[in-house]
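Much of our argument rests on the idea that a fold can be written as discrete symbols. In the encoding step, the backbone of a single protein was reduced to a row of integers, each denoting a local shape. This step matters because it turns folding into a mapping between discrete strings. For completeness, the protein is quoted in full, as a sequence line and a line of structure tokens:
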Amino acid sequence: MKKISFFILFLITAMMAILVLSSCVSQVYPNMLGKWEVFVYQENQVGFLIDFYITTQSGGSFNGEVVVPDGVLGTLSGIVQPDGNVLILVDVTVEHITDNSMSFYGAISSNNRMDGSFTFFEKGYAKFTGSWTANR
């Protein structure tokens, strides 16, 4: 009886240790905060410049604004994974423009650089695609 109860106690202790240790290992997310200068290339290598101002980050999620020379283009929200993959969604809120959005998918290649693919949506349909590069 003592051997069985010792084995059960050991098994329960080992399981608890595994649960506690796995929850103590935290994920480290790349810092997204700050101003990112973004150049978007369209299919014919013609492009445009915008700025991402990322103002809040909690773990892997972040929020901010997209700014163009004329003012604020819209709000952005995104997710970054510990391995550096990033997804940024932009809701375009410029006056007289409705149902437009942009998605940026890519990866962080260094602390101050990221790049990937870009899609512009109008009324829920992809209008054009391209690539993008951002530097901080």
The mean pLDDT is 82.
